[in-house]
Design a protein that fits this description.
Blueprint: E1 6-15, E2 18-25, E3 31-37, E4 41-48, H1 61-67, E5 79-83, H2 116-119, H3 126-142, H4 152-161, H5 164-167, H6 175-184, H7 193-206, H8 219-239
Antiparallel strand pairs: 1-2, 2-3, 3-4, 4-5
InterPro entries: CK1_Ser-Thr_kinase, Kinase-like_dom_sf, Prot_kinase_dom, Protein_kinase_ATP_BS
GO molecular function, one term: ATP binding
Keywords: ATP-binding, Nucleotide-binding
């Protein structure tokens, strides 16, 4: 069962980026293909009529939404998110107390985005998650992190020695406030999420970004799709 709306019939195929399942609508009985992408905040998209043998395109939910109602296109019935908790660990007990740090928890994750504490194999907490978020944000704004192309065993040393101003080269200086704050935090502390979000929102406003704006790597694809749709609509007008 998927979302109390779709009944999974069987798996059609599976690749390195996800799996495709045959499913049926509980209400209408219509059969669809459901693709489940295997990323942290993945999306599944449903494509109408398996029996029509239409080519299933790897497209963004936003694009499918805009194409809804157009002839000869895939139909979007719905979408959702899948949160992967495969590497998550409860940090509080059932009574609400912070769990004691393990002596040798080991390292799990990706060295590029993990905190210094995680790279050292220490117990991690909410502050370490925020370090990963910040490294991801900085990478998006810089294009790459300084340690992207060095050996894994050298990443920890580079992270520890790199000055904040060098890490934030060509990046809004306000991010330094967040990084400096994270450096003062202990594993058990509850982060000031509201304050961090307010700084990120200020940066977005100053740069005239909106939360619904496409990512840089989506722009060419969306422009191409928009151009194709305009050509299709203009062709329909000429035929009329």
């Amino acid at each position: 069962m998927l979302g109390k709306q779709w009944s999974i019939i069987e798996e059609i195929g599976e690749g390195s980026f996800g799996a495709v399942y045959k499913a049926k609508s509980i209400e209408s009985g219509i059969e669809v293909a459901v693709k489940v992408r295997q990323d942290t905040l993945g999306q599944f998209i449903m494509v109408e009529h398996i029996e029509s043998h239409q080519k299933s395109l790897e497209v963004d939910v936003v694009l499918l939404s805009k194409l809804n109602g157009s002839k000869h296109t895939c139909t979007l019935y719905g979408y959702g998110t899948v949160k992967d908790f495969g590497m998550a660990r409860r940090y509080v007990t059932l009574s609400g107390q912070i769990r004691k740090a393990r002596k040798n928890p080991g390292f799990r994750g990706t060295s590029t985005y993990s905190s210094v504490a995680a790279n050292k194999g220490k117990e991690t907490g909410r502050v370490d998650d925020l370090w990963s978020v910040m490294y991801s944000v900085i990478e998006c704004m810089r294009g790459a992190l300084p340690w992207d192309h060095i050996r894994v065993r050298d990443i920890l040393n580079m992270k520890m020695k790199m000055p904040t101003e060098l890490l934030l080269e060509n990046v809004p200086g306000k991010l330094a406030c967040i990084l400096n704050y994270l450096k003062t935090m202990k594993r058990e502390e509850q982060p000031r999420y509201g304050w961090i979000i307010s700084i990120l929102e200020t940066i977005m406003q100053e740069r005239q970004y909106r939360s619904g704006d496409p990512f840089d790597w989506q722009v060419p694809f969306l422009e191409q799709a928009k151009s194709s749709l305009n050509q299709r609509e203009s062709g329909a007008v000429r035929k009329a």
